[in-house]
Amino acid sequence: MWQPYTQMKTADPPLPVVRTDGTRITLADGRELIDGVASWWTACHGYNHPHIRDAVERQLGLMPHVMFGGLTHEPAAVLASRLANLLPAGLDKVFFSDSGSVAVEVALKMAVQYWLNRGIRKRHKFIAFKGAYHGDTIGTMAICDPDEGMHRMFAGLLPVQHIIDLPRDENTTAAFEQFLQRHADEVAAIIIEPLVQGAGGMLFHSPDVMRRLRAAADRYGLLLICDEIFTGFGRTGVMFACETAAVVPDIMVLSKALTGGTMALAATIARREIFDAFQSDDPQHALMHGPTYMANPLACAAANASLDLFAREPRLAQVAAISKCLAAGLAECRNLPRVKDVRVMGAIGVVELERIDDMQALKRRLIASGVWLRPFNNIIYLTPAFTMGEDDLLALISAIKSVLTP
Ligand SMILES: *Cc1c(COP(=O)(O)O)cnc(C)c1O
Question: Which atom of ligand 1 lies nearest, measured to the CA of 136?
Answer without folding.
Answer: 9
